[in-house]
Amino acid sequence: MKLSIIIVNFNTSDLLRNCVNRVYKSLNFGKIEKDSEVIVVDNASTDASVEMVEKKFPKVILIKNEQNLGFSKANNQGIRKASGKYILLLNSDTEVDKEALIKLVDHAEKETSFGAMGAKILNFDKSIQYSLGFAPTLPRVFYWMTFIDNIPNLTKFLKPYHIENSKFYTQKREVDWVSGVCILVPRKIIAKIGKLDENIFMYGEEVEWCYRIKNGGLRVIYNPEVVIYHHKGSSGGGKDAGIIEEFGSLIYFYSKYRSLPHLIILKILLIFGALLRTILFGIIVRNLEKASIYVKAVQMVR
């Protein structure tokens, strides 16, 4: 088996149907369907997702959970079930380009010493979704929290935690992490560095995973030739809604890999950044919904 595609689902029945449809079209286009498998892990959906998969896609390997286990645990279930040489984690709210899967496999076969590969992730208007970056060091968290890394032309010097410069996404690059929306990892690498950290429920799990991959002496590659489309936020709540979870994941990351002084400084930076955004959205922009999210983020960090 060449490729195992793992899709975690929670109440995204219509999007999941489109996702799996596009996956099979891409597999057929690349003539690799017979050497591939699709695994759907359902996290106790209540919207008839399970029935839809059973009816529309009988070839899919379906894992039905009785409760929502989160992104990491559910993907790990799929990884344990998978038999492919390459493991692709794919969000349920994505649609792959017809050439995407064969390009992923072909590039993976040609690359040496790579541990993870990500794709160019687009909105449906074909604009870039920012989906990769560099390790969350304290300086980079500071640049992120103070908006310094949004200043044009500084990306190549600062190497931001979140790269929000569309020019960066035009060519193949080595980075520190790529989005879990679409990430390909060879099975042998997972056997070496381990599966996703199940202490992370959702958001930030790919940063921690890629950190272990990089520490294992392997490369994390962004490949813009592989294109997927993503309904951003449909399966997880969106960038701002997920900020609380991302802050929590960063705190966990620092608790796991950094010293106590570094953890304390991180929390100070996160609180400062959240307060800054609370003022921005609450007073200047007058978006009280976003402001309330950052108020909750401050409370979580404290």
From TrEMBL:
List each copy of the Glycosyltransferase 2-like domain by range. Answer: 4-135
Membrane-spanning residues where? 264-285
Asked if the keyword Transmembrane helix belongs to this entry, the reply reads yes
Keyword annotations for this protein, in alphabetical order, are:
Membrane, Transmembrane, Transmembrane helix
**Has UniProt tagged this entry with the keyword Phosphoprotein?**
no
Pfam families documented for this protein: Glycos_transf_2
What is the name listed in the Swiss-Prot or TrEMBL entry for this protein?
A: Glycosyltransferase 2-like domain-containing protein
| Source organism of this protein record | Candidatus Gottesmanbacteria bacterium RIFCSPLOWO2_01_FULL_39_12b
